[in-house]
Amino acid sequence: MSMARYARGLIAGLALIALPAAAQCQTNVRFVLDWAFQGQHAMFTMPADDGTFGRLGLNVTVDRGVGSGDTVVKVASGTYDLGIADLYSMVRFNGQNPGQRLIAVMLVDDKSALGVETLAKSPIKTPQDLVGKKIGSPVGDASRQLFPLFAQANKLDQASIKWSNIAPELREPMLIRGELDAITGHITTVLMNLRGMNMPASTIRILPYVDFGIDLYGHAVVVRPDYAEKNPDAVRNFIAGSVHGFNAMIKDRDGAIASLKRRDTLLNGEVEKERIQASLDYRMITDNVIKNGASNVDPARLERSLQAAGGAFEFKTIPSAAETYTERYLPPRAEMKIVP
């Protein structure tokens, strides 16, 4: 064998040895969504597919969820390392499970897009019109869990409302068939689900929580404090990769849909593109985000919302902003920039 061939073989062999070693250097991160794969979730799948997470030393798996209430339970139990969930679903879980508290490390939505939805032809036009009506929602959905805040802010008699706990896939069909007077849900989820059923936005009336007395933040990346303390680089790099994914999703809608379809081949690409835009418009892109980047939280605003949540949830002790959200694991602010 010639020296050249020997050298090439030696280099190839070393490369094969090095590959497993490099893989071993990556931290495995199990991440769970708040719902089934949807357009806005591409901010987490794209960095997994384009190698961004890998370059940051992470091997991230992204799994679908079945509601924020379920997501926080799975993260608290250790089934998943990180998850995305409605911030106040996490707050409610913390209040009910003080020994398993989670903390938010990145605010994905600068404002909430939770609401009550009904047909435009319905007599329900204000929150007071919900008295005595039948409302349906999955029990783990954030909109259902936070309805007490909406009810309290609008002085609704919650005992008069007839709740129907339904499977996610039945929510919109039951509304269309008239089996429910109204539903609650994430506005972008409900609108796009109805869009997929040939129900245009003009046929739907929305009562957004934020328009009726509740200035809420939206979804956040949540984690167990002990996991974050033991794996600060993993959490920080996950956030950095997600910011990359946020911008990639904005810039490349076709790429976003392709990434999601690797996980759910049945997705309607056009509907999901519309969902991305609706998510950006309704909850993800605000003047604050444009000016200051992602996850720029106003502690005073957060404190006010926690006071409201604590009262509605009948907490004995209202959690503080510092107990709910931390900037400790954020990359430098300059690296949090979002370009609409």
Properties at a glance:
single chain, 340 residues, alpha/beta, D-Maltodextrin-Binding Protein, domain 2, 2 domains, five-stranded mixed beta sheet, 16 helices, 10 strands, 15% strand
Explained architecture:
This protein has helices spanning 3-25, 42-49, 52-55, 68-77, 87-96, 142-145, 147-153, 171-176, 187-195, 225-230, 232-251, 253-261, 269-284, 287-292, 299-312, 321-324, and strands at 27-32, 58-63, 82-86, 103-107, 114-119, 134-137, 162-165, 182-186, 204-208, 219-223. Helix 7 crosses helix 15 (299-312) and helix 12 (253-261) crosses helix 13. By secondary structure, the protein is an alpha/beta fold. The chain folds into two domains: 26-109 and 217-304 and 315-336, D-Maltodextrin-Binding Protein, domain 2 (3-Layer(aba) Sandwich); 114-211, Periplasmic binding protein-like II (D-Maltodextrin-Binding Protein, domain 2, 3-Layer(aba) Sandwich). The chain has a five-stranded mixed beta sheet, sandwiched between helices. It is 46% helix and 15% strand. Mean pLDDT is 92; it is low at 6-23.
Q: Spans with pLDDT under 50 lasting ≥5 residues?
A: 6-23
What proportion strand? 15-25%
The name of the CATH architecture of the largest domain is 3-Layer(aba) Sandwich
Helices and strands, in order, run as: HEHHEHEHEEEHHEHEHEEHHHHHHH
Q: Under CATH, the topology of the largest domain is which?
A: D-Maltodextrin-Binding Protein, domain 2
The main β sheet shows up as: 5 strands, mixed
Per CATH, the superfamily of the largest domain is Periplasmic binding protein-like II
Q: What's the rounded overall pLDDT mean? A: 92
Order of strands, main sheet, comes to 2-1-3-10-4
Name of the CATH class of the largest domain: Alpha Beta
